[in-house]
Every structure is written in C-alpha cells, then in structure tokens.
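Table 4 source record.
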Amino acid sequence: MTPLLQLENEAAYRAHFEKVYCKNPIITFDGIAVRLRKSDFDHCCYKTERGGNKKTVFCPIRAARIDWIQIALKDPNADLRVGWDNIQKRHRPNRRVAIIFGTYVVIIDILKCRKKARLVTTFVADSGPGKTLTNIKRSPKWPRIQT
C-alpha cells in the first residue's frame, strides 16, 4: 500500500493538491482524461459535521490519502463499479466508482464524449452491514472494454 502523505497543515495539502492535480488532467488506465479543479480539494479533504449536509471540516485522514486519487484512476485492477445517483435513486451509467486498498473510493462522472471526466469525490468508505462500502459493492461491475 502506498504510504500516507504527511504535510504540516491544510495549506500545504491544498498546495500539493493543486500542484499534482490542477495543472494537467490525470489519464485513467483506459484513456479517460480526468480534470480536477482547485475546488475539488474540498470534496477530497473535507468532511461533513455530524448532522450537517455540507463538507465544512478539514479532515487530515482524507487529506493524507490525496496521492491515492491518481493511483485509483490509473489502476487497471481497481474494483470498478457503476455509481449511484442519490438524488434520482438509481445507478448512473456515466458515474464510475473505483475502489483501491480495500476501502478507498474515487468517484468520477464521465462526460458524453466518453474520453473526459470530472471528479465527484473521494473518501475512505465504512465497511460492514448497511455501510457505504457494502452498498457500493452491491452495485453492478463497471463494464470493461476488451481490446
């Protein structure tokens, strides 16, 4: 497993994220260009307060894993699943979920051209009955194109 990133503070994590992810797109193992914006840092490194509905609290546990984003996107052996739309309450064929290292989740939305995507979020999923990871693994496998 790749080591966790240990930086001195939130500003250092944000600077690292912008340097690694916001200059050029990350190309997935199957040729999709995933462009990350500076604002994606908040989706990756913040969490929701108990009872809240917006990510407002910096989370060092999430921030320490930001280097795992590109690992998940580039890993042809990641566990790939069709993503879920919480608003429409159905699977979305353009939303791809990649799971690496057992519980780390990276979700992207693939655009209509099928060669570009945007980051939705990343997180360490809870496992066990009724938990996020269990629910994700119930989703259909992502269809892999044979070459």
